[in-house]
Amino acid sequence: MHDSWPLLRNDRLNGTYSIERLFRPPTPAQIVARDNFASACEVVVSLCDSWGGAYMPLVPINPGQPIDDLWVQLVDRSPVDGINERDLVDTQSQLGYGYFTHTPTGLYLLRMLMDLPIPTNHVTVQTARGVSPDDPWYLSYLGTFGDHPPEVTEDRREWHGIAAGFNYDGVVPIKQFSGTTGPADILNRLRKPNTMTAVELTLSRLGYTEAPVDLGFPYSNSMGLREWAESWRFGPNVVVVYEQDSVEDLALLWYLRALNGFRRGFPLAVPAVADVPAALSCWQHMGAQRHWGFAGGDMAVISASVDSDLLKELVTNTRFEVASASEVLRPLGGCQLHVTDTAHYTNGRAEIPRFVPTEIEALGRAALKEAGGWSRVTTIVTDSYLPPSRTLRRSGYPHHGYLHGYIAQTSTNDNILEVFHPSGLEVLDALARDQSQTVRRSVPGRAAAQLIEMIGGMPGITRLACPTVTILLGELTRGRSSSIVKKQLRQFLKVENDAETKNDRYRLLESRLEEALAKPDVEDVGYKTVNEIRTIAKLSREAGNEWIQWANRRGMLLRGFQSSCENCSHKQWRPLADAVPELICHGCGQVVPDPLGLDTAQIRYRAGETLLRAMNFDVLSHVLALRYLCEVWDGRVGGGPRNVFGAYPGLELVDAESKQVVAEADVAVILSNGRWIVGECKTTALGLRESDLTKLWDFADRVNAPATFVATLQSSAECGEIWQRTSSPSGRPHFALTAEHLYNLNFSTVSHLGKDPLAWRTQYNTSDGTAGSAASDFSAFLSSVDEDTTAWRRAPWTHAED
Fold first, then answer.
1. Where are the beta strands (DSSP E) in 34-180?
2. Are 301 and 315 in contact (CB under 8 A)?
3. I need a labelling partner for 122 at 20 to 30 A (CA). Which of 42, 319, 494, 628 fits?
4. In this structure, what are the phi and psi dihedrals at residue 2, rounded to the nearest 5 degrees?
5. What pLDDT does residue 594 have?
6. What is the CATH number of the domain that holds 641?
């Protein structure tokens, strides 16, 4: 991750990076007809005959009709290489290029079991073989345990060189069903020691994970931070209630088992003709459900064939809720061999080995040779997971593209694989294309981005998060005559005390005057001594010196001196590099013989060009709002990617034909799920108008943003009713960030124990809750800052004991 994170930049990776390497067999999804249960059962058996078949989804359709949008989303965002159409649907016309697969059911499992280094012959494999297809519980057993073909076809024997009479029971002990079907039997068989299911056997030597669950913080699912929110809430605690021969319910059970890591409990399925409440009670008393956190463990029933009203009757006296498939499903994690490695990138391109020693040791050369050129390697740059995007996923050659990282197909000839990684702004462009939009950076956005890069990303922005520092930056970037003009304004308006400055008439005029005065020429900007900077920012001597040194190192402040012309008394600021015996006065053109004075020179600081340009565009509120949201949402989703992929402080949507700007946003935060949170930022509360909100919500509509916000550097007491809106006219969540949010230093106190960090605030997060203590708290913060955060681990003896 680059030093300016979370800023999205246009530079591609260069250098050596830690990568996560995911090796897996091909996993095509399988189209099944909703009206042909027998065929769907045959597909399940064929998937149990494929390496990795447990993670090949069944996609139910009505023949000749398009695939449902839910299944399109799930397949598109899961490690699924294509869809086996089975002559039932034209996927390419609906889904676009890259979905067709040349491996209808993947790699042959029996051949792989024969070649893998450690056969699983010490584990009994439980199958659904022996359960009558007429038994109401048949769907439940087949979807839970699976089954292998009893005999190897002649084509398979000839192609893979398998001896006559050799079947799965020659590699592993196969156990058929015998007994009475029912809820207790199915759970007992799942939990029997030294036993695996035929479905799990397809994952031999491959890793897989259980979908994470929600730990229950109230704000964790708000503002689009997590998609599939109900799925996080229910986790694996889902039961499918089905009518006999329901293809879609079989597909749901098959998918849910894979999604939740083939637990020895829920998700399970029960036929509607059985005593459903009794089955649910049986499983619950046997501990089939999973509990987590303080209150996690909500349970749900779903069905594609049973009416929702009937479901509600069936669970009336139980702890189960009725949910829909869209609420409990989410993208699969997939099955893969996970290896941590390194790769050297040059302009976003790297070369990695086709197989690494860990893969060779785990799978063996014979199995890898059998996998040939069919398998996939996904390369994820650590801490740079790519958000899901249709454009990234499918805009390339078949079997390539991006899903969290670059997907490469292994080769039978080359020992080297080429992998790629796009820049942040290239990803942003792809996400805009997903919404049929064209995005570009605005001029103020570029100025803000240059400032963020100059000061070093998040740590640097934090050094600006103080009200008095904002005042200081205003003084440094305002014309030197501004104080005189403001004094004259007060005299003109006959303002005699501070109370009168709070009326709307004065505030409006002052804000417009500030806007005009804040754009001086370089020669007209003010310059301050060290003492003046410390005084304006209200920083202690130690903290002020530390801040000035940091600002000077980053180029935000320029060090120089003031020279006075003896001829015309014109005073001018010059950088120390100009400290030569003679200077030419800019005022009268005469030589200044002693520019530094006779014996001493007092150092004075002036705003650098980047800071001046940023302040001229009034983007400080953009930068601080970007920082606040990324700090609040920083973290990881279930141990995977960060909640935030990146952000940019100023974007425009452009009409593809006319090239005219059709919508603008001052800040766009891109979440790890690819969703946009967009906002409008103002220096003063009076700057926000209805037209600004209308434009913001238009931008949000165009990119399908789950939430919007407004931000200002002024406190909530200065904000009118327009700032306290909680939704747009269409119902989209909307929130406001004021000075109480933006000047926050300690984020551990605003986002723990379920407190909503986006709620309206009337108090600062300071020692006494007021803005008056912000400067002293900021001084203490600067005194405690250590840019080398690992020093205490490397050399603990250099730190004094408490």
1. 50-51, 58-61, 82-84, 107-108, 124-126, 174-175
2. yes
3. 42
4. -75, 165
5. 63
6. 3.40.1350
Residue 730 lies in a domain: yes
CA 364 – CA 571 distance, rounded (Å): 79
272/365 same-domain check: no
Note whether 310 and 340 are same-domain residues.
no
Distance CA 240, CA 769 (A): 52
Which residues lie below 8 Å from residue 752, measured CB to CB, with a gap of 6+? none
Is the Cβ–Cβ distance between 529 and 484 less than 8 Å?
A: no
Q: Residue 238: beta bridge partners?
A: 300
Residues 587 and 563 in one domain: yes
Return the structure tokens found at 694: 């209308």
Q: How many C-beta atoms surround the C-beta of residue 450 within 10 A?
A: 17
Residues 606 and 464 in one domain: yes
Helices (H), 170-263: 183-191, 198-201, 229-234, 247-259
* 628 CA to centre of own chain: 16
Q: Would you call 581 helix, strand, or coil by DSSP?
A: coil
CA distance 9 to 296: 39
The pLDDT score that the predictor gives to residue 595 is 63
Strand partners of residue 528:
605
β-strand 320-322 against 299-302: which pairing, if any?
A: parallel
Residue whose token pair is 């076809």: 153
Q: Could you tell me how many residues make up the chain? A: 802
Q: Which two tokens stand for residue 590?
A: 């005469």
The answer to whether the beta carbons of residues 408 and 379 sit under 8 Å apart is yes
DSSP state of 727: B
**pTM (two decimals):** 0.87
The C-alpha atoms of residue 320 and residue 249 are separated, in whole angstroms, by: 18
Assign residue 259 the CATH number of its domain: 3.40.1010
- Pick the more confident residue, 102 or 450: 450
Residue bearing tokens 């073909």: 149
**Residue for token digits 């000077």?**
552
Torsion angle defined by CA atoms of residues 522, 527, 533 and 535, in that order, rounded to the nearest 10 degrees: -120
What's the confidence (pLDDT) of residue 138? 97
Tell me how far apart the alpha carbons of residues 505 and 489 are, in angstroms, rounded to a whole number: 12
**How would residue 527 be classed by pLDDT, with cut points 50, 70 and 90?**
confident
Amino acid identity at 262: F
Do 724 and 609 reside in the same domain of the chain? no
Determine the angle formed by the axes of helices 774-784 and 541-553, rounding to 10 degrees: 70
Q: Residues 696, 704: contact at Cβ < 8 Å?
A: no
Distance of CA 366 to CAs 114, 160, 363, Å? Answer: 9, 13, 8
pLDDT score at 496: 54
Looking at residue 794, its amino acid is R
CB 116 within 8 A of CB 201: no
Phi, then psi, of 709 in degrees rounded to 5: -150, 165
Q: What count of other Cβ atoms lies within 10 Å of the Cβ of residue 292?
A: 13
Residue 459's Cβ-count burial label (10 Å; 0-12, 13-18, 19+) is middle
Residues 511 and 557 in one domain: yes
Range of the domain at 350: 15-23+334-434
Lowest mean pLDDT among 220-229, 273-282, 705-714: 220-229
Could you read off the pLDDT of 627-657 as tens digits, one per residue? Answer: 999 988 876 555 567 789 999 999 999 988 8
Tokens encoding 802: 């408490």
Q: How far apart are CA 338 and CA 24, in angstroms?
A: 9
- How many domains does the structure of the chain reveal? 4
Query: Phi/psi of residue 408, each to 5°?
Result: -115, 145
